[in-house]
Specification:
By secondary structure, the chain is mainly beta. The chain is 14% helix and 44% strand. It contains 3 helices and 9 strands; from the N terminus they run αβββααββββββ. The strands form 3 sheets. Strands 6-7-8-9 form a 4-stranded antiparallel β-sheet, with no helix packed on it. β1 and β2 form a beta hairpin. The longest helix has 13 residues.
Length: 177
């Protein structure tokens, strides 16, 4: 816990060592926590790794800190949660940070991503009506197809295209969100 607290102030590499001294006479234990903070770590650059489809700018706008600022646990966690919320990456282990120390007060951050499929395609075939006369207007057949993607060409735009055709009607739909 103490290491996380120091991490909120940019001391990402803080080292906390507990010293335990038992007192057998009065049955107590004295615990002393010694912290070696080192220096606060500033961010040199953020490298985004593993995004084959999603464009960098879609991911970077979810990151809450910039190059040159202090690296804090809170900013890393908030940024990770925002990137996960896009829904384009594996929910189990699809978004992770890796810190690469450059010198004693500067580090690079690698944002390692594992993308998932965001598109789908469905097809429909149906028939209905009176079964005695196949040429009757009440007898019809229908075919339909729909393609959708939650991350159209890596832009973060949700889209869908659908088409339906039958003897009585034709429908075409397109949606961008």
């Amino acid at each position: 816990i103490l290491r996380n607290i120091w991490g909120e102030f940019g001391y990402i590499y803080a080292d906390v060592e507990p010293e335990v001294e038992p007192n057998f006479e009065d049955k107590t234990v004295e615990i002393t926590l010694k912290s070696d903070l080192g220096k606060p770590i500033k961010l040199n650059q953020i490298n985004i790794i593993g995004n084959k489809k999603t464009r960098d700018k879609i991911i970077r706008r979810q990151i809450t800190f910039d190059e040159g600022s202090l690296i804090t646990n809170r900013h890393m966690e908030i940024s990770k949660n925002r990137v996960e919320a896009l829904g384009f990456f594996d929910p189990k282990d699809g978004v992770n940070w890796k810190i690469k120390k450059i010198n004693e007060d500067t580090a690079d951050l690698d944002l390692i991503l594992k993308e998932i499929k965001t598109g789908s395609m469905t097809a429909q075939v149906g028939t209905g009506g009176a079964d005695k006369d196949a040429s009757s207007p009440s007898t019809s057949w229908k075919i339909g197809v729909e393609a959708a993607d939650r991350n159209l060409m890596g832009t973060g735009i949700q889209s869908s295209l659908s088409a339906q055709y039958s003897r009585q009607e034709f429908g075409l739909g397109f949606n961008l969100v």
